[in-house]
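Async update (no meeting this week)

Hi team, since we skipped the sync, here's where things stand on the single-chain job. The sequence we agreed to prioritize is pasted below, unchanged from the tracker. I ran it this morning and attached the output directly underneath so nobody has to dig for it. Comments welcome in thread, and please keep replies under the output.
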Amino acid sequence: MTGTSARRTLRTATKMIKPDVVGTVMPSSLGEGTDLHTPAGRLQPHILAALAEFERSRIAERVTAGLARARAQGKRLGRPQTRPLPHGVPATLTTREAARLWGVSKSTAARWLAQGKVAQTSPTTG
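Output:
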């Protein structure tokens, strides 16, 4: 009974309220007056678990339908594509100016320059 999906199934909920799984101690709710020793008390968790499973399936349907509609409208889903690295950068350009020019953060520009991903070109004299 590991993982998130294993804890959310109707079968797991049914196993939890069986006397052989719990043993001689049966949970009871004092606030709602639910006693799992009675047939009516054992029915209530089954109904709640069935409704929860139904609602979970409905949410999954709505998410899938929404994603399909977004794709049909031509929206691109997921992480944005990486932009190509700039070809060259003047050696006199500061990290802050490079970040503004490339549209990235200062730390990303500094990392690109330090890793040599962007070649620095020396200014030409003419």
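Quick observations from my side:
The helical segments are 4-7, 10-17, 19-22, 39-72, 95-102, 106-115.
Strands lie at 28-29, 34-35, 88-90, 119-121.
Reply here if anything looks off.
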